Structures are given as structure tokens and as C-alpha cells.
């Protein structure tokens, strides 16, 4: 068992296509993510961020290289994508509860925890609302609660707030950190926003343009809990400038 939540060694991914040249999406990725860490992945469009996340999430296979997980984390992962796919005929609570139903894990303890998460995500008053009655931000909150409902140690998020306006996004970033601090999950978060990566993360992985490699891993030494004061901290601006410079 790896001491890391996730450990990638020499990971490569090539997409083959008989009609055109192969696409080398990932090249020699080595990465160690500690339990409970919040890591963001940034880099130019097409550099392989989503491919890397999908491979970590067992949704795709690497061409070569290995991945090790801690405590069977590969069996239990939570996913949040840009478009929250909620079942339109089920209400907020039923949508959030869905993984528990599928996995037959509707224990009293899990149900209570689900209600706590809904409360933490500010959804308590909307438990009986249907998805069509919710704003985009609320739908994303439901999908975060759903991803956390079955207590997977690893949460994978691919541009979860990409489609939201800047204010809602800032607000949800703060909510996500609150939930993260309470649940102590390992989070791997793909984003196009440098500011979002800085605000959220313990470390930011900067990838190079295709073929995607690890260009630099940047430790974000900003105090927690983070909030509005973080965004006004001159160090926050410095980190953003530095990251922008690396991406080029
Ligand atoms: N299923 C696939 N088949 C063939 N090529 C693919 C496939 N998925 C991704 N690619 C290619 O692999 C490269 C990396 O794609 P990926 O979506 O991982 O990048 P990304 O960094 O997440 O991009 P973006 O920032 O634009 O969302 C791209 O050149 C893409 O065209």
C-alpha cells in the first residue's frame, strides 16, 4: 500500500488514431499526493489535465506507467465535473443520496452524514427542490455533496465551477474549502483559473503544453482558513503572477 493517497510513476498516455498521427497526451508524469492534500492542476488548453484526472479516476488507462492508491482509494472515488448531471425527476436530497442507494449503504449514520453535508453546503432548505428549480451554483453544490456522500477518501474535480459567474465561483470556492476542511478528503482539482488554483490549493501542479509533462509543482504557502482576506493578501497576487509566468 502506498503511503501516498495517490502515487504516479512514469505515467504516459498516447491516443492512437489510424487516420492521423498519435497524440502524446501525457509524458513521464511522476506525482505523489499526500492524504488530505488539496492539489490543483493547471496548464494550457489541451495539455492533458482531464486525461490525467480520468486516469487517476480509473476512467481511462495509461499507456504505460503505474498508479498506486492508499487504502483501496481506487475502489471509492468521488467525481464532480463541469456539468452536474442530476436526475431531473429526483429532488436535491434524493440526487445527493443516489450513490448510497446504488451501493445499498443507506445506513442511519450515512443518512445523518448526508444531512450534515447538505447543511454545510447551504442546501438544507432546498432538500425537496427539483434540479430545474436550482441555480447553476446550487446544482454544483448538490453534485459535490453527492460525491462526498459515500465517504470516498479521494475527490476528483474537473472544472466544477467553470460554467459559473465569477462571484458565485468565489463563493463556492470558500464553501468547498469549508467542506474539505471538515471531511479531510484528498482533492485533485482541474481548473483553467490560476486564481482559483492558488486560492484553493496546498500545491499547484503546472503542466506544460502537449505532450503534457509536469513543468513545476508550486507550494502555496497561504494561511488557512482562506477567505476574502486571502484574495487581498499581496502574497496571493504574487503566486498568481508567478504561476502565470510559468504557464507562459
Ligand atoms: N479520447 C481521446 N481520443 C483522442 N485524443 C484525445 C482523447 N481525449 C483527449 N485527447 C487529446 O489529448 C490531449 C489532451 O486532452 P485533455 O482533454 O486531457 O486536455 P486538457 O488539458 O484537459 O484540455 P482543456 O484545458 O482544453 O480542457 C488533447 O490533444 C486531446 O485532443
The amount of helix comes to 25-40%
**Number of separate domains:** 1
The kinds of small molecule bound in this structure are: adenosine-5'-triphosphate
Q: What's the number of extended β-strand segments?
A: 9
CATH class: Alpha Beta
Major β-sheet, in short? 6 strands, mixed
Average per-residue pLDDT, rounded, comes to 93
The SS-based structural class is alpha/beta
Beta-strand percent range: 15-25%
CATH topology: Rossmann fold
C-alpha end-to-end distance: 38 Å
The low-pLDDT segments are none
What Rg, in angstroms, do the CA atoms define? 18 Å
Q: How are the strands of the largest sheet arranged?
A: 5-6-7-3-8-9
User: Mind telling me the CATH superfamily name?
Assistant: P-loop containing nucleotide triphosphate hydrolases
> Can you write the helix and strand succession as a string?
EEEHEEHHHEHEHEEHH
Helices, by number, come to 8
**Given the C-alpha coordinates, what overall shape results?**
globular
Oligomer: single chain
